[in-house]
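#onboarding

Welcome to the new folks! Below is a worked example of what a typical request in this channel looks like: someone posts a single protein sequence, and someone else replies with the predicted structure as tokens. Don't worry about understanding the tokens yet, we'll cover that in week two.

Example request:
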Amino acid sequence: MVTWGAELSDNTPATTFGEAKSNPTALLNWLSAIDRYGLARMDALPDKSAAIIDVTDLFGYVRETNYGRYFEIKAMANPDNLANTSLGLQTHTDNPYRDPVPTLQFVGCLQNDADGGESVVVDGFRAAEILKRESPANFDLLANHSAQFDFRGHGEVHLRSSRPMIECAPEGQVIGIHFNNRSCHAFTRIPFATSGLPPVWRNTRRTGTTGML
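Example response:
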């Protein structure tokens, strides 16, 4: 595994759908790049709904969710998901409220009628490396205490899960990042004595004054 920053923006591993379908070596190289960097691009997908299924059929299978085999994103008048708008999205990981969380996730663009539409990708593992180096105490807070993620969709769909934002193996290496401001609840599972807040905040909270943490 290789972590990365802006240097990968001009050198993103890529292939085309036709090349991956006809050339096993091209498909292997593309999948190897995903294993190494966590992402790769595929151009020239079939221009049809469910084209993303054609990609996954080249090497594996799709794990179905409450959305079905795939989630078709369209701008809607009254959306229940920010993805169904033309608004920009902050960097995040999808579906942290799902158990298990998505492993490989594929996003395909068929048509863009809005201004902009550029994709922004951030390596959460590199961000965790920087945080651990520059602020070990804050890294430990996010690694050793769970956040609560919650989502309510149409009908009776209610998904909820608890997991640390920085997930580490018992040996200490980072194995997952779970970060989504839109579905994250208040951080109530961090013992106040280890919150890292200055004493004045602790005293204020104890006397009943309302404050945002």
